[in-house]
């Protein structure tokens, strides 16, 4: 029974290292035409790794998703690319 807990923790860690951890949208900033948002400029998220800021592209179609996955930035989970 105790080994199942260890396997579950390792599995969650492996999945988080591959797809990231979920963060929820708290606020956003956007350029407006006076009435509606034309382009999102910044999105602010909170999640397991604290506060994150995301800058969507300049295309009008890109918005701030309600939930966004951010890669782990904790030292044991960061790898340098050659």
Share of residues in strands? 35-45%
List low-confidence stretches: none
Number of domains: 1
The largest β sheet comes out as: 4 strands, antiparallel
Query: What order do the SSEs take from the amino end to the carboxyl end, as H and E?
Result: HEEEE
Count the strands?
A: 4
Span from first to last CA? Answer: 41 Å
Q: Label the structural class.
A: alpha+beta
Explained architecture:
By secondary structure, this protein is α+β, with helices and mostly antiparallel strands. It has one domain (2-77). The protein is 22% helix and 39% strand. The protein has one helix at 2-19, and strands at residues 21-32, 37-47, 50-54, 67-70. It has a 4-stranded antiparallel beta sheet. A hairpin with a 4-residue loop joins strand 1 (21-32) and strand 2. The protein is elongated and about 60 Å long. 6% of the residues are buried.
Which descriptors apply to this entry?
4 strands, 82 residues, single chain, 1 helix, 39% strand, elongated, four-stranded antiparallel β-sheet, alpha+beta
């Amino acid at each position: 029974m105790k080994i199942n807990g260890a396997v579950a923790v390792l599995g969650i860690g492996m999945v988080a290292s591959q797809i990231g951890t979920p963060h929820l949208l708290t606020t956003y900033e956007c350029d407006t035409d006076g009435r509606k948002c034309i382009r999102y400029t910044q999105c602010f998220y909170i999640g397991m790794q604290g506060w994150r800021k995301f800058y969507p592209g300049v295309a009008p179609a890109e918005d701030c998703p309600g939930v966004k996955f951010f890669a782990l930035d904790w030292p044991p989970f960061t790898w340098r690319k050659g």
